[in-house]
Structure formats: C-alpha cells, structure tokens
Amino acid sequence: MSKTRVLQHGRLLPVLEQRLAERYDLHSLWQEADPEAFLAAHGGEFTALVTSARFGADAAMIADLPNLKVISSFGVGLETLDLDAARVRGIPVGYTPDVLNDCVADTAFVLVMDVARRISASDRFVRRGEWLKGPFPLATKVSGKKLGILGMGRIGRVIARRASGFDMEVRYHNRRPLTDTEHGYEPTLRSLAEWADFLVIASAGGPETRGLVSREILDALGPDGYLVNISRGSVVDEKALLEALQDKRIAGAGLDVFEDEPNVPPAFFELDNVVLLPHLASNTNETRAAMASRVEENLAAALAGQAMVSAAA
Ligand code: 8YV
Fold it and tell me: Cβ(55) to ligand 1 under 6 A?
C-alpha cells in the first residue's frame, strides 16, 4: 500500500520531521521555491497537512488542498490556523495543548523573577566587571506580591499555582468569571492592571485579544508595576509598551513574544528594564518531545478515522 501523502508547512522539530518521513510520504512545502505554484499543481495529492502554531494554515492554503482529511499542528496557539475553513469541510484539526503548560508557566515565573530581581541585568553587571567598582543596585521583592493574570485558561491556572509557592495573591480577568477557581475576578483588564504588581498575559492570540494591553492599561499598571507576556506579542501594543518602558511609566517588562518575531524592535535593546526572550517558553527537550508525539498521535488517529487526542475542530 502506498504511504499517505503528507504536506509539511514550515520547519518542525528535526526528530518529528524524521519520524513523519519514515511513516508517511512527507513533502516539505517550505523547500519549494514557489509554494503557491506547487500547491496549485499538486495540492490535490495530499490528505494530511502538518503545520505549527507559527505557520498555521490560512483559508487559501486549505482551499488549495481539496482532498485534505486532517490537519495536525505543533503548538497550542491556533490564531494562524483558519479553523472555520477546516470546519466547513469537516477536516479535523489537532494541536498540542496541556503538554506545554508546565514549561510555559515556568517561563512566566522566570520572567517575573528576572525582571523584578534584575537577574539578567545583574549577570551583565558581573560580566562587565562592574561588581569590582561597587554593589549591584537593589531590586524588587516578588514573594507576597499581587499577580494579575489576563487569561485564566489552562496555562493561566498553572501560573496561578506557581504563584501560590511565592505566597502571592492572584486575581484574573477573562471575558467571564470562572466558577471553578478560588482566585478573585476583576471585571476589566484595567482594574486588574490597577490592582496588580505583576500583570502576566496568558490569553490566546488572534483578533479578539489584539492590542488589549494598550497605553491606558500600561498606565493603570503604573510605575511600580511589571508586565510579563508569554502569550502572543499581538496582545500588547508594542509601541506603547516601548514608550512606557522608556519613560519609566511602568517598572519593567519580561517578554517571550513579540509582534513580528523574530524581529524585535532594536529600541528594546537599549533598555535595562526589559528582559527579552526568543519565544522559548515551551522549548525544553521534555515538552517538545511531548508536543511532537501529540502531533503524530493526532495525525495517526484522524487518518485511522478515530478521535484525536487533542482536537481543536
Ligand atoms: C511554540 C507556541 O514555540 O504552542 C504555541 O502556541 O507558541 C510555542 O509553544 C510555537 O508555537 C511552535 O510553532
């Protein structure tokens, strides 16, 4: 029997690419000089599409794959994937939630600690030989402070659990209050920002959350407040954030995500009150292996006509 023809959109973890290539007739769209022309000529050959939160699949791509039976995506974010276009064709979409909650929540706390205690800044201080000239300036205590979470979803809840180990009070803002959490609900993002010492963004990306963290929200957080973003750069007005950091209208920010990755506006590099990470929250061997396995499981299940382990649509 001939192998299922699977289209790969964007690079994936090498070990996942290798395992998919062993099992399926895998074709790398990202290696095509003219992907659109390739899709127009060969789109009908593929029954499966493997992609990632980074590359997704838009309506045009899904339309170019008329025999598509399954989409399996690496990552929890779905804002780059046109779920409606898949849904109307009855194409199941798999993704990889939950397995990355721990590492993403850990990264949120890395950023909370780093930006408040100025860990990366102090490392630069030691390397520059400045310790020889005098002590590092005092920083801000984290334990016992107030942590506001925008987006109390799967990852937000794990962040809240981590916060309890730091004796922090947690409140959150979602569109609606939850019935199964003991944490306080703030009816608006603005009131959450006013209350919080640390505002952690853990919401989904996409049009519904675009620009939610505006200049007004940053000013509500105020000169003693810190912003941490492990969700999507699009949730924050990046220009407003840059200005707030430059003018010290907020105390600092820890960012794992940006509006136009991997392009980080160079003006951020000049600032000592911001910690910049290259979107690494889920990048551990353990979590990436679990995500890769989930991509394979979802794909195999759907091709066998069974329910996926994690279905988004
Ligand atoms: C990945 C992520 O780095 O899961 C997500 O949505 O943002 C990260 O875990 C990225 O999606 C891989 O494409």
Answer: no
Spot the catalytic one: 9, 173, 232, 294. Answer: 232
Which domains does the chain carry?
5-97+286-303 (3.40.50.720), 101-276 (3.40.50.720)
pTM for this model (two decimals): 0.97
The question of whether 173 is a catalytic residue gets the answer no
Residues 51, 204: Cα–Cα separation, whole Å? 18
Residue with CA closest to ligand 1 atom 5: 75
Whether residue 261 lies in the annotated active site: yes
* Residue 75, ligand 1, Cβ within 6 A: yes
Q: Is the CB of 100 under 6 A from ligand 1?
A: yes
First to last CA, the chain: 29
Of 159, 183, 188, the residue nearest 169 (C-alpha) = 183
Amino acid of residue 16: L
* pLDDT values of the chain reduced to their tens digit, one per residue, 313 residues: 789 999 999 999 999 999 999 999 999 999 999 999 999 999 999 999 999 999 999 999 999 999 999 999 999 999 999 999 999 999 999 999 999 999 999 999 999 999 999 999 999 999 999 999 999 999 999 999 999 999 999 999 999 999 999 999 999 999 999 999 999 999 999 999 999 999 999 999 999 999 999 999 999 999 999 999 999 999 999 999 999 999 999 999 999 999 999 999 999 999 999 999 999 999 999 999 999 999 999 999 999 999 999 999 7
